[in-house]
Design goal:
5 helices, globular, Rossmann fold, alpha/beta
Length: 203
């Protein structure tokens, strides 16, 4: 069984539809006590980091997600869900994350841009594989996905499985053991995104 953490942050319908397209049924789960019954878990998210953590903490879902991650079963964070996997974020102040992967979430630093870019980073861009991972099985070394974000993660290269260039190069996909995260939206990324979702289902 594949569960989607339902904490009132994100367009869950498009995620559900994407899994249906690869023949996988998913269940929306808002009860933290039931997370352990799932074989795989999706942590989606759209919106502000601080608000998301407040929603997760309101009923103990934050601790339930941590326990699931420690179980060794596959966990995938998408967009804001990926950012929540990290230790902290500077979005609208300083906020503590789930701390499952060492690193932090920072705003795009326009002073570093190689030429002017608009923030948020919105639209199609390339993800460049940094290492072999089951999540990107069957995809080329560089492929396009759909992005919408104003903040990105900073972490050690050992956790980076994908990077993207927008003004400068940033980490756009991560893996730490059974924990995966991807900044772009696979559910909005047509064939490439569906391949990532299919690969996650097969883990």
């Amino acid at each position: 069984m594949i569960g989607i953490v339902d904490y009132k942050m994100g367009n869950l319908a498009s995620v559900i539809n994407a899994f249906a397209k690869v023949g996988a049924a998913v269940i929306l789960e808002s009860d933290p006590d039931k997370l352990e019954q799932y074989d795989k878990l999706i942590l989606p998210g759209v919106g502000a980091f601080g608000d998301a953590m407040e929603h997760l903490k309101s009923n103990g879902m934050d601790e339930a997600v941590k326990r699931f991650a420690q179980s060794g079963k596959p966990l995938l964070g998408i967009c804001l869900g990926m950012q929540l996997l990290f230790e902290s974020s500077e979005e609208f102040g300083s906020h503590e994350g789930l701390g499952l992967i060492p690193g932090k979430v920072v705003a795009f630093n326009e002073c570093r841009f190689d030429h002017p870019h608009k923030v948020p980073h919105m639209g199609w861009n390339e993800l460049f594989k940094q290492k072999e991972t089951p999540l990107f099985q069957g995809l080329p070394d560089a492929f396009y996905l759909y992005f919408v974000h104003s903040y990105h993660v900073q972490c050690e290269d050992s956790y980076a499985i994908g990077k993207t260039h927008y003004g400068y190069t940033f980490v756009s996909a991560v893996q730490k053991d059974n924990i995966y995260g991807i900044q772009p939206h696979p559910e909005k990324s047509h064939e490439n995104g569906l391949k990532i979702i299919e690969n996650f289902v097969k883990l």
